[in-house]
Amino acid sequence: MGSISAIVPAIARDFGISDFxxxxxxxxxxxxxxxxxxxxxxxxxxxxxxxINVVTxxxxxxxxxxxxxxxxxxxLFVLRFLVGxxxxxxxxxxxxxxxxxxxxxxxxxxxxxxxSATFMATLLGLFLSGVVSWRWxxxxxxxxxxxxxxxTALFFPKTxxxxxxxxxxxxxxxxxxxxxRAFAYIFLLSLFYHGVRQWLGVxxxxxxxxxxxxxxxxxxxxxLAGVFGEAxxxxxxxxxxxxPTLKFGVLLMAxxxxxxxxxxxxxxxxxxxxxxxxxxxxxxxGMSTFLMDLDKPFMKEIxxxxxxxxxxAGGLGVLVGxxxxxxxxxxxxxxxxxxxxxxxxxxxxxxxxxxTEAEHVRA
Length: 363
What we know:
This protein is mainly alpha-helical. It has one domain (2-156, 176-362): MFS general substrate transporter like domains (Growth Hormone, Chain: A, Up-down Bundle), CATH 1.20.1250.20. It is built from 18 helices and no strands. The protein has helices at residues 2-6, 8-15, 19-22, 24-43, 49-68, 73-87, 90-101, 104-129, 136-155, 170-174, 177-197, 200-207, 212-239, 242-262, 269-292, 299-327, 329-351, 354-362. The radius of gyration is 20 Å and the shape is globular. Residues 357-363 have low confidence and may be disordered.
């Protein structure tokens, strides 16, 4: 998704429309992703992970290829919507597998490594976005997804199904205070993060006047930080505790937003993007690990809610951020600095329970 936001200016030029209009393809991907993620966790009670993966990856490959063939904005919007529907399966299925297969004291490490791998893919995509036609940014994921279908069919292990308990338990899960407060926190963080993240490419191109190559390189730095930030966040969650890890990540994002207001020089942007990328991914890995410690009977619902809430909030954040940044990028950075700062101060109040305090002492 990050590499797609980098090529928004290039696609907009080809289609002859505004960057802010074309930027809605990010929203078109994120909202169906968030909604459809709700189905995949409970679906593992009926079907093996392997079966679900093969089907969803196949459709992802087809619709990604067609996205690269799109001849207009509306067609691309619809195709990105369909890609989001099937891309939503991956993270819930992986988190369910990790909960089943790993001990609590090692979960952060494996969560961090998984998300580091996703950021490595984004990093490669961002680099390529600066040197190849934007259409190849859809063709390449399509080919890789087709390869993943073959590898999944051959090597991916099956998980146990629970055909006697096929119903979802979302209402019961969200009745648990620790669970709904965790997802309230995720909703706010994702709303703020994606409100900024999906418009940074437009900021570099429009306000700073950068060419596509330099836009892509700046965003690449954020993903490069993410490769290490996810791993660091997972290890920190295991060693230092979940909440201190979350707070440090949010604080870094608040600081980065404050510096974006004043520092527009080319030499400063790489440092800001590194701080921004580290902040988000340290928090992301820490929060994903935090969720895996919640009530295991609801883990299928929790794994789906994680993706759903992040992407629904992110899609809304793209709309809100676009409206704000159309007025002024500096004003937008100031507003988001305040938001991240308030969330940093509220982290303990929202998430801390007697359980997390005891776990932090043991850590």
